[in-house]
Amino acid sequence: MTRGWRRYGSALIWAALGVQVGCQSGADIRSAVESRGERLVRLDGEIVDLHCYFLDPARNRGMGHAQCANECIRKGLPAGFVADGHVYMLLPQEHRAINGDVFRMCGNTVEVVGMVVREGGMDAIWVKSIAGMAIAPFRAAVD
Questions:
Q1: What are the CA-CA distances from residue 52 to residues 7, 29, 32, 117 (Å)?
Q2: Cβ(93)–Cβ(26) below 8 Å
Q3: CATH code where residue 33 lies
Q4: Is the separation of the CB atoms in 125 and 40 below 8 Å?
Q5: Is 19 contained in some domain?
Q6: Domains: count for the chain
Q7: Which of 42, 77, 88, 113 has the fewest CB atoms within 10 Å, measured from its CB?
Q8: 3 occurs within a structural domain
Q9: What is the pLDDT of residues 33-88, one digit of tens each?
Q10: Bridge partners of residue 122, in order along the sequence
């Protein structure tokens, strides 16, 4: 019994929390972000896997680390974006992982269009497009 709890217990707890807390739809997320007065921005930078990047930011980026970063993001580790000395978590506008959209882009300079949000000391980008590839529809105007 204990072994089963270890295996499935945490999944059951997270499922229960998800049911109680609920999830916002993509439209709710857009409305919440737009209500904060955020506008779309265009930033040039690099897609990174946040796991390796935070271990050693100087070494774990660029073409020399691209294969590892692509593999980490493909496996589901969080994707990030580094631009002008800032590190952002990449967030899709819908409730799905963005990893499948970006895991082959590591090591190159790409343009990200989206809304930058800062909350609790963390920076994130609600992504509209990366390297000209639309991630999901967005209604806000571009700066």
A1: 27, 29, 31, 23
A2: yes
A3: 2.40.50
A4: no
A5: no
A6: 1
A7: 42
A8: no
A9: 566 666 789 999 999 999 999 999 999 999 999 999 999 999 999 999 999 989 99
A10: 119
**Cα–Cα nearest to 129, from 140, 66, 121, 120:** 140
R_g over Cα of the chain = 17
pLDDT, mean of residues 16-33:
49
SS3 track for the chain: CHHHHHHHHHHHHHHHHHHHHCCCCHHHHHHHHHHCCCCEEEEEEEEEEHHHHHHCCCCCCCHHHHHHHHHHHHCCCCEEEEECCEEEEEECCCCCCCHHHHCCCCCCEEEEEEEEEEECCEEEEEEEEECCEECCCCCCCEC
Range of the domain at 51: 24-134
What whole-number distance in Å separates Cα of residue 80 and Cα of residue 92? 12
Distance of CA 71 to the CA centre of its chain: 16
Instruction: Note the pLDDT tens digit of each residue in 4-18.
Output: 444 444 443 434 334
Task: Confirm whether 140 is domain-assigned.
Answer: no
Q: Look-up: residue for tokens 């945490």?
A: 10
